User: Fold this.
Amino acid sequence: MINMATEEMGQAIEEERRLQHLLLKSLLPKDDADERNCILEVRAGTGGEEASLFAMDIFKMYEKYAHKNGWKFEVVDIAQSDLKGYKEASAAIVGDGAFGKLKFESGIHRVQRVPVTEKSGRVHSSAVSVAILPQADEVDVQLKNEDLKIDTYRSSGSGGQHANTTNSAVRITHIPTGITVSIQNERSQHQNKARALKVLCAKLFEMERLRAHSTRSKLRSEQIGSGDRSERIRTYNFSQGRVTDHRVGITYHSIDDVMQGENLEVFIDALLLQQEMDAIATFSSSH
Assistant:
């Protein structure tokens, strides 16, 4: 009888802890943007052509991950380098919870590998920046015509004769903030303008979200990173076949799987769990 009572007591204590955790979780402030679609931006950083080639690899990694999740991946714009890497690339990712899943991917992604341009076989370090922005609805951002400076010019990218002989590329500058968005991938000026406005709205919406968030809440998960592009978050070491996330200290030893969009959940789930635990700890200590 004593053993049975002890066992039941242990089970009751575990159940109480589980319910307390669920209760605390339900009390945490929710990020309203988590269920939204998102805009992905990838830019080559330090490392020249090798950085642009890695930017292309990272962009395609997220494209494969999006397809794996049943999301729609719409290329917005790509600016290619001389070796056909990506100096800059952006896409709209459409799917339930896309932003909530990918929001901690923002930051500096570093690569360590032998570049195709390296003849002596030395390993180089290069970097790309990734930004994940929640897609804005029309009601979220009100754009005034007088706040926009719209320029058109000839596309410099691929697209054949049509792209190079018409002013189809569009550059929109939001005068109050100085934010500039350039799109040249589509064949028509109208399509490029529509895509540029979508990206601009996402950038303005994210600016306002971060401003409001920082002024009203302390639950910002500083421990796992601010989401700032200047923060190095992950290293992809090809010579050793591993990927390391520096915020949660996790290393995954199959880099090919990660680059194919497989097993990114190893990092994404760990980051989401860390965010939850940090928020609960902060909430508990302040109440």
Notes: The chain has three domains: 1-30, 38-135+217-285, 145-212.
